Amino acid sequence: MEEINANQEILDQTEVKPVIVQSSPKQVRLAISAFYFMQGVCFASWASRIPTFKASMGLNDAELGSILFALPAGQIITMFFSAKLTTHFGSKKMLRATAPLYALALTFLALSTTGWQLAAFLVLFGITGNLCNIALNTQGVAGENYYGKPIMSSFHGAWSIGNLAGALIALGLVNLKLGMYTHFWIIALISFTNIAFNGAKLLNYKKPDVAAEKTKLFTMPQGILILLGVIAFCSMATEGTMFDWSAIYFEDVVKLPHNRAIIGYASFMFMMASGRFLGVYLIQQFGRKKLLQISGTIISIGMALAVIFPNIIVAIFGFMLIGLGVSSIVPMVYSIAGNNKEVPAGKAITMVSSIGYFAFLFGPPLIGYVSQLSSLRYSFGIISIFGLLITFLVTKIKKIN
Fold first, then answer.
1. Residue pair 379/370 in contact by the 8 Å Cβ criterion
2. Transmembrane stretches, by residue range (predicted)?
């Protein structure tokens, strides 16, 4: 209990004042990590089945790109009120309410038989996912301050481990020829179990005061938050491309059979997860600014290798470099934004996310359209530019703590 009380002053600097915390910093860290893990599993369950949707519905690259537009569209819709809800109800209540809805929305995707049905369910998946995401990252910033160490990367590392686990589960179930509906319900039930077991261990907050209630519904980002948002945009455009198109790239360009194409996605996620846990150490050694610059360079190198030499060995190595490069960028950006003293954590994260999520809105569809006009290989080459842009933009930020 002494360790808990010692962290109260630090925790008071986050979204609103906390109530008495019943969980130790380690328990809080594990609980938050579990929620990140399950959100990663849910997302990977969808992403790893994209080739199946594409094949079963007979979609070409442009048609798939248009449908993929629906997921970030749902995420963008909630940007205008997700921070307000998180500030009003607290990230703990919001997370316990939205996490089961996100898992349930996953199961609806398997009911799709046409492109428009898949698009409609993806909008719902995006809405519930972003409400969950804002609450989870706000809880993550609070948990980092409460723990007293830069552990935000480890939270996102838990998401990546969950993503890798979800991809591997899908790989096994695809080869066992288990249907998507059963697959997605297995994941949903695991998610419900996690919420029941770990939900009470999250950090709790009092209701904000009247002044906080009268803040604007949505505020445009300014100053450093704009630069952070553009950096997040470049990173998320890369991530979105890898999430939605990596398995198809390995199937169409690297020429792997359908039941092995997930290897490309899994290799990317493996290094993304590893890099996020390693990021806690690297931030302490190099600082956030230098690490952001290095990360952008690694993204460009990895993408260039995968495009220039699309054989299985080099492509896997290139995808692994991309995973390492993007691994710590968004966690660092969220941590920097969430600790901005001028803006509440939930609102600052939403400001940055509102820019970053436009990458998910335009990135994956752009890949599909360019691929239809030329080839999937050349469309991936466009993404390598984003890594160089990240390195350049970081130099424009004068001070990063």
1. yes
2. 67-87, 157-176, 182-203, 224-250, 262-284, 291-309, 315-337, 349-370, 376-395
Cα Rg of the chain, angstroms: 20
How do residues 15-60 score in pLDDT, each as one tens digit? 444 444 567 888 889 999 999 999 999 999 998 898 889 888 998 8
Are 299 and 327 contacting, i.e. CB atoms less than 8 angstroms apart? no
**Amino acid occupying residue 393:** L
What three-state secondary structure class fits 268?
Answer: helix
Half-sphere exposure of 319 (CA within 13 A, CB side): 26
**Six-digit token pair at 273?**
């997860």
SS3 content of the chain, % helix, strand, coil (to 5): 80, 0, 20
Closest to 322 (Cα-Cα) out of 298, 286, 346: 298
pTM of the model: 0.73
* C-alpha span between 242 and 236 (Å, rounded): 10
- CA 250/CA 260 separation, integer angstroms: 9
CA distance 312 to 90: 46
